[in-house]
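Morning, I've got a small favour to ask if you have a moment. I'm working through a protein record and want to make sense of it properly. The fold is given in discrete form, as structure tokens running alongside the sequence. Can you walk me through what the tokens say about the fold? Thanks so much in advance, here it is:
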Amino acid sequence: MKGMTIIVKKITQLVAPIIFLFGFYIVIHGHLSPGGGFAGGVIMAGAIILQILANGNILNNLLQEEHGMELLESVAIFLFMLIAVLGLLVSGTAIFFQNFVNKGVWGNLLSAGFIPIENIVVGAEVFAAISTIFIAMVVYNDEVKK
């Protein structure tokens, strides 16, 4: 994949960070408004996919990025399970995913216990998973053409 014109590349350089930040906003505010970890993770992955489509694939860079995304995905899955088990251990009850963080004041950003933390972890996992899938398809397509 060669990449797009210089105009598309420059517009992508301007728009992709805004898209990524919007996805992060969706993740952070998912317990207060529609959205959450999955939706925000998909939006953040869309910013990475846009960059790859606009700039073309530089195979060595994409392979390095794929390994980094795989590591992020693994760490996020581990953290998700760790938070779930911590809820089980800290609460003293036999409830998996028991809230063990102070709930705060209703309507504030820190008002939902550990749900915002879980949203961040889910957002990171979805972001990494969808980015990894797209990068793997680009790399596989490039290898098939050879």
Q: What stands out?
A: The chain has one domain: 6-145.
